[in-house]
Structures are given as C-alpha cells and as structure tokens.
Amino acid sequence: MKDTRTTIYYTDELNDEFSITQIQPRKIDGNYDYDGKPFTRKIARFFCYRLIATPLAWLFLKLSYGHKIVGKEKIREYVKSQKKATEKKGYMLYGNHTNDMADAYIPTMITFPNPAYVIVHPNNVSMPFMGKITPYLGAIPLPDDLAAARNFKTSIDRKMAKSWPVVLYPEAHIWPFYTKIRPFTEVSFRYPIQYDVPVFSFTNTYQKKKFGKNPKIVTYIDGPFYADKNLDLKNKKIDLRNKVYNQMCERSILNTVELIKYVKKEDVK
Fold it and tell me: SS3 of 204, please?
C-alpha cells in the first residue's frame, strides 16, 4: 500500500505510530516457540531467508530506492576479529524506523553474508500468513509475560553465543520517511551491556535520485560503541544510548528529501 500522505500531525514523539499497516498483535506468552526444533528451523530458515528473502530484499531495495550502504567495513572488521577470538561474541545494531517495507529488509543487507535477527513488536508475527514466515526471516517478538521473557532471553543468548547480530529499532514506532531522529529511551541498551558486546548504529537517510519518484535510501553505519565500564548500570545504558543517538542525529543531517512533513499539533495555530 502506497503512502500518499504529505503532512502528518503528531503529539507524542515517543508513542505515536504512523504505519499504514494496522495489525492486531497476538499475545506472546510461554507457549510461543522462539527457536523451534533446531534441524527443522535451520532448514526452513535457509530456504526462506537465504534462497528467497535475501535476493528479493536486495532486488526490492535496489529497484525501489537505489539502496546504498556506507561504512559496512566497520562491521566487517569486527566480524573478522571475532574469528580469531577465544570467546565468540555477537553484536547489536540500532537504527531509525522510517519505512514499513525497507526497514524489514535493510538489516539483511547490512549483515550479509551473516544472518540478521531483529527484535520486533508482536504484530510482526501476527499476520495470517506472513506471521508464520517472519520468524524464519529473523523476527524475534518481544514477550508479553514472564514465561515468554525467559524463552526470549534464551533465544538471544543463543544468537550472541554464535556471534550473530541482533537488530533493534529503539524508536519503536514507524514514522514513514521521517528525516530526523526521534528521542528514544535507554531501556533497550541493557542488551549490549548484559552480553558485553559492541553496538553499531545505522541511519537510513533519504536523498535525491536522478530518476524516479522514490528517493534514494543511503544507510550510514557507525561504531563500534561500547558502554563505559566505569559507570553503574543505569548510567551505562544512558551513556551508550547517547553515543548512538548523537551519531544518528549527525547522520540525519545528510537527508536531502522530505516526502512527508511532520508537524507537532501544539505548534499549529
């Protein structure tokens, strides 16, 4: 579904949601199977993720947005260093949330040839058909109760132990084609501190193309960022959040196209 809006009025930068896709989320409880049977999940993931989703994602991003990644070598250097490390560790990626379709595919391009796992809202696994497929594409839904939280943690533990990347969109809500970085809390930064892994930021910007109506998406990768070990847990999260947020704000200046104008309602006279 094409987004034809040119102006969006908002009230709350932390909680307003403007995705054009509305889905009733299922409850993620202790019965939700995060990892499934290892062999079955491995075969299904290889078929869905590698043979179908990855080439389609590349094709969609190139044809629709002329997608380009700047700074991927920063991740490559870290991944290369892990091959020689005694204790294997994954890493975490934090990005801005500005596109229904592209945001689902961009992490795959960033981490290729390694798989990407994305922590998502439950509505990403709640669609009648695709909800059954998205877990094989790397979707890890947030838990709704304590039993699910334990299973969720076990799933993340496994990803980190295998040196795989886990992706988060800390803004949580989609603001289509938004060209600034919305304020987000430090809550989600407990993960890299808990696992003692580095953080990379990726900032999606919209820039002019020579041809076509859609803008070009240029993704800038920065990092690695580490928590300050001299701080207590609360301030470690704040410090790491600020490093990522400030870097993303700096990159957002590179936007050159504004398809949708966002206006705060209290500023409307």
Answer: strand
Residue 223: partners with Cβ closer than 8 Å, 6 or more residues away:
74, 75, 198, 199, 200, 201, 247
Residues paired with residue 7 on neighbouring β-strands, in sequence order: 261
Query: Taking Cα atoms as reference points, which of 218, 199, 224 lies closest to residue 99?
Result: 218
Choose among 59, 74, 155: nearest CA to 109: 59
Residues 220 and 110: their CA atoms lie apart, in Å, by 10
Average pLDDT over residues 213-230: 94
CA distances from 91 to 78, 171, 175, 251 (A): 9, 19, 26, 21
What would the two tokens of residue 37 be? 């049977």
Strand boundaries in 83-236, DSSP class E: 91-95, 117-120, 139-141, 165-168, 199-207, 216-225
Q: What is the pLDDT of residues 90-148, one digit of tens each?
A: 999 999 999 988 999 999 999 998 889 999 999 888 887 777 788 888 899 999 999 99
Distances (CA, A) of 224 to 42, 78, 190: 29, 8, 16
